[in-house]
């Protein structure tokens, strides 16, 4: 997922997406430990997507705080 797509979403949508990615990461890690995961690079991709989502959430929070001043 690209960052420009995340900037268009609302905070609620981002938090929902964050929960989905966190559950996917849990599933991937579990499958990796039980040696059922063939493509381990997906774990890294999901972690980066989670970081992008958290960054977008934080940026929107900062913009809202800046608007209040």
From TrEMBL:
Alphabetized GO MF terms: structural constituent of ribosome
Q: Would you name any one GO CC term? A: cytosolic large ribosomal subunit
- Biological processes annotated in GO: translation
Gene3D superfamilies on file: 1.10.287.310
Q: Which InterPro entries does this UniProt record tie to the protein?
A: Ribosomal_protein_uL29 (IPR050063), Ribosomal_uL29 (IPR001854), Ribosomal_uL29_sf (IPR036049)
Q: Which Pfam families does this UniProt record tie to the protein?
A: Ribosomal_L29
Keywords linked to the UniProt accession: Ribonucleoprotein, Ribosomal protein
Recorded coiled-coil stretches: none
The source's superkingdom equals Bacteria
Q: Which family does it belong to?
A: Belongs to the universal ribosomal protein uL29 family.
**Stored NCBIfam families:** L29 (TIGR00012)
What is the protein name for this chain?
Answer: Large ribosomal subunit protein uL29
Tell me what organism the protein belongs to: Mesomycoplasma hyorhinis
């Amino acid at each position: 997922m690209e960052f420009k797509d995340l900037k268009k979403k609302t905070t609620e949508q981002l938090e929902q997406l964050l929960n989905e990615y966190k559950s996917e990461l849990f599933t991937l890690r579990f499958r990796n430990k039980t040696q059922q995961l063939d493509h381990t690079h997906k774990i890294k991709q999901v972690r980066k997507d989670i970081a992008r989502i958290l960054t977008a959430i934080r940026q929107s929070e900062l913009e809202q705080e800046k608007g209040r001043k």
